[in-house]
Amino acid sequence: MDEGRIAGREPRDLLPLSTAVLNILLALAGGERHGYGIMREVEERTEGRTRMGPGTLYGSIKRMLADGLIEESDERPDPAMDDQRRRYYRITDFGRRVAGAEAERLSGLVETARSRKLLGTRGTYLPEGA
Amino acid sequence: MSRSGRVYGVLLLAYPREFRRRFGGEMAQAFKDSCRDAELRGGALGVMMLWVRTMPDLMSTAIVERSRAVRSRWLFALILLSLALGVAIAYVDSSPGWDDTGVSAATVLGVSGLFGLLYSARPWLWGLAVGAWIPVFGIVTEFNHPFLLALVFSFAGAYAGATVRGKFFPPQR
């Protein structure tokens, strides 16, 4: 990874992340994937609530590569089973730190919402008057 | 399904050439994979629904990528212009009949400030592009190091311009 390019940058400099970027980082935190693999993982994890098109996915990937959040991987999880034309991506150490910082930021917001009785203990909306 | 893939391949022309060259193949592959899944799950209706979701994505992201490409061409043009102005200022400043150092310094300050205002992301670039030529001309022709002071003015101007830009037109994420 080109650490020099991101030297001096703090994870918080990139916050807040867009929904697409955070979802891609979460998908790649679970292992290397190609573009369509990322799309599938996001759709399955969010139970179909978030669907990324190829334009959103690769526009985000382009900027994440430039920001050093992800990098291309030369390895193929299973070369025999896979199309060699696909490119795989993996999260970098800096990408992990950025994703962690964003998760912490969101967690703080959730805590605030909970303390102001906007959320139940399991993240459900509280009924009016509760 | 293959017809959808071919149509999508043509629609990728909406993206800038550099973007297409780097990601076009992968995008087409991802769309074909999505098509195959949509057909397996929902048949022709599934493919149609996929197109309904894909078109807004394609149009909005193509506009974003096009505007980014224009912005990078704009940056390139600004760099060329700043270099040309920097050389022109240094040429005038080093000409034998010119002895008004204050005007040279004010011009360097103003020009680099204007570039910092126009493009605030890299003030150091304008500081160097505009201000480096007076020291270069001075050191080459007279071996005179005080000309390096021109860099102080150019960096001050560029950072002042960028600060003003950031204060009144903060960047949008």
Q: What's the topology here?
A:
The complex is a heterodimer of chains A (130) and B (173).
Chain A: H1 3-6, H2 19-29, E1 33-34, H3 35-45, H4 54-67, E2 70-73, E3 88-91, H5 93-115
Antiparallel strand pairs in A: 1-3, 2-3
Helix pairs in contact in A: 2-3, 2-5
Chain B: H1 2-11, H2 17-94, H3 101-118, H4 123-131, H5 133-142, H6 149-168
Helix pairs in contact in B: 1-2, 2-3, 2-4, 2-5, 3-4, 3-6, 4-6
Question: What attributes does this structure have?
Answer:
heterodimer; A: 130 residues; mainly alpha; three-stranded antiparallel beta sheet; 48% helix; disordered N terminus; B: 173 residues; 6 helices; 84% helix; rod-shaped
What would you say this structure looks like, in words?
The complex is a heterodimer of chains A (130) and B (173). Chain A has 130 residues and is mainly alpha-helical. Chain A is 48% helix and 8% strand. Chain A is built from 5 helices and 3 strands, in the order H-H-E-H-H-E-E-H. Chain A has a 3-stranded antiparallel sheet. Chain B has 173 residues and is mostly helical. At the A-B interface, helix 3 and helix 4 of A face helix 2 of B.
